[in-house]
Amino acid sequence: MKKTVAELKAVHASALGERLKELESFEEVLNSLAQESEDLPSVVRWAAEEPQSIVLKSLQDETIHFYNPTQREGLKPGTVILEDGPVRKVVGSGLESLSVEDFRELFESGRLVCLRVALET
Question: Could you tell me the end-to-end alpha-carbon distance of the chain, in angstroms, rounded to an integer?
Fold first, then answer.
């Protein structure tokens, strides 16, 4: 996980010139998504797989919508993904949703790291 997080931070800094910092609590994650002001680059390890980058996009009711760049092609909205971790639902091309509670479990178990642009002071 640490290597993938470090790589994501380096790519973001190089491409966009912005430093990312890790969010320390799941409440910070929910607050950032509720404000709808920014996407949250993240790293997740679904099951025993290698960690992968995803982007948390929005909080809608009791689900979090996110961009998954490794989503299989051709999945239609409403498709339920049963393999590779918790049950997720396809929302659109590359977009999926997962319950807030499942994301909380991933975060608290150390299998999800969420980042945001560091505010320079």
Answer: 28
Q: What are the strands of the beta sheet with 95-99, ordered from one edge?
A: 20-22, 112-117, 40-44, 52-60, 63-67, 95-99, 88-92, 80-81
Asked if residues 98 and 84 have their Cβ atoms less than 8 Å apart, the reply is: no
Instruction: Identify the DSSP state of 73.
Output: T
Give the global pTM: 0.91
pLDDT digits (tens, 9 = 90+) for 41-95: 999 998 777 899 999 999 998 999 999 998 888 999 999 998 878 999 999 999 9
Q: How many domains does the chain have?
A: 1
- What is the rounded distance in angstroms from the CA atom of residue 109 to the CA atom of residue 99? 16
97 near 89, Cβ under 8 Å?
yes
Alpha carbon of 25 to those of 36, 62, 118: distances in Å? 18, 18, 15
Its domain, for residue 31, covers: 2-117
